[in-house]
Amino acid sequence: TISANALLGAFSKKGKLTEAREHLEKIANPSPVSFNIMLRAYIENGHLHKARNMFDKMSNPDVAAWTQVIQAYSDHGELDEARKLFDRAPNRDSVAWTVMVTAYAQKGNIHEARTLFDRMLDKDPKAWTAMIKAYSRNERLLDARRLFDQMPVKDMMSRTSMITAYARKGDLEEAKSLFDECKERDSVLYTVMMKAYSQHGKVREAKALFDEMPYKNVLCWNSLLTLYVKNGYFEEAKDVFLDMPSRDVVSWTAMIKAYGDNKQGKEAIKLYHRMEGEGVQPDHVTFVCMLEICAELASLQQGEAVHRRIRRSKYRNFTTVLNALVHMYGKCGCLSEAKAVFTEIRNPDEFSYTALMSACYHNEQYWEALQMVPHMVQQGILPN
RNA sequence: CUCUGGGGAUGAUAAG
Q1: What is the ipTM, given to two decimal places?
Q2: 3-state DSSP assignment of residue A225
Q3: Contacting residues 138-167/A vs strand B (CB within 7 A)
Q4: A171 three-state secondary structure
Q5: Do residues A24 and A6 touch, judged by C-beta distance below 8 A?
């Protein structure tokens, strides 16, 4: 059963849902894990509905099944449904609690995140680290530090999280001081410090850290690439892109964006096609970047081509992608298409409304743009 | 003690 499950997982990763389904039916003694993998396959491939259907039919879903459905709702912005399931679950382990804490943190509800964290009985380092990050991403650096200091056993990941918080805020000194205190340093820690230096324009110092890394995976190389792009070293970035041992979708996307930022949108689009030609699949960020470039070029033709590509992908329902589509159509003079895409957004956020407003703006519908404000407030989304 | 779910690092979306 275990090797059958591994195969099932492989089908899932490749997005081959029908094969996965057929394979599951052929497994003689499917275990709970088998069903969980199938559940996961639906979720990962953007079929939350099918996942929920399957989950509802499961006779005795275990805590892992509950947890991944909860997380799926959270990832789709449906926090209320996630919470309902969390409260209904027959039992909750530390994974489930941490998922729920993170879910609230992502929605900006730091208070509820902390309430849940405090109710947790056996807090492992992962739970602590999640809560530190929750404060960090919600601009609550002092609370993050207080929690960090209260942590009974600090591991490298919690330290990295804390250093990231300082780096985000631009507090290079405090970041460096914590970094220096670390006895163990892996490359993740180095990339965080690189980012801190990068934000201060200290390119040489950041590069020195890169050279010191104990190992260099593609993520480390991507950090170097970004260091150069963000600081305006376009030529160096191109060199790194060519020299790095392997390139993933992040590398390609960063480089596509770099061309776009340097007013070479046409080159960026060419690079995108090279990426697909090499078998690297674009993801939601790639699509957003591409749409941004099409919008900048005001090229409806290119924008529509990207839209068609998106429709074939599992990112077609992502709010960020739809937001970028709204903006692209607006910028290209298709206000009606922009509005049509907007209606497809299941959970519009502040960016969705701003994108729609910008679409009205670019098409000189100023009164309509203003009317969006009461509309979004009605939906509980406050203008920033 | 690599069959499924949670924690740290890299790329992204509005206005200007």
Answers
A1: 0.71
A2: helix
A3: 155-158, 160-161, 164
A4: coil
A5: no
